Amino acid sequence: QVQLVESGGGLVQPGGSLRLSCAASRSTFSIVVMAWYRQAPGKQRELVATITSSGRINYADSVKGRFTISRDNAKGTVSLQMNSLKLEDTAIYYCNAANPGLTYWGQGTQVTVSS
């Protein structure tokens, strides 16, 4: 069992930056994939970025070159550095931890990009 708690959301102007953090209730060495998802109003939840236990990283096309995912297994954290934010990045951002047959979600943190 893993509990995930996100933090770092808020209101930012277009072009600004935010750093999201997700703290797990234990170390994450054994978690195969950690990821960030987001869900905008009226839309389905979508994958933003993933990072595997071996360090392999993937990004959604919409955030490539702007967002950076990282993880610290000893601390049990995964972070998302978001730069050059756009209006369309507005969403609730969720942390996810997954192993085969198991998946865990945080409660989400709101990111609002607005002028």
Q: How would you explain this protein's 3D organization?
A:
The protein has 115 residues and is mainly beta. The strands form 2 sheets. Strands 2, 4, 5, 6, 9, 10 and 11 form a 7-stranded mixed beta sheet that branches. A hairpin with a 2-residue loop joins β9 and β10. The model has no long low-confidence stretch (mean pLDDT 96).
Q: How many helices in DSSP terms?
A: 0
Helix proportion: under 10%
The CA-CA distance between the termini, in Å, is 40 Å
**Whole-number mean pLDDT:** 96
> What is the SS-derived class?
mainly beta
Quaternary arrangement of the chains shown? single chain
Strand runs, count = 11
Shape: globular
Radius of gyration: 13 Å
Order of helices and strands: EEEEEEEEEEE
Low-confidence regions: none
Strand content: over 45%
| Largest sheet data | 7 strands, mixed
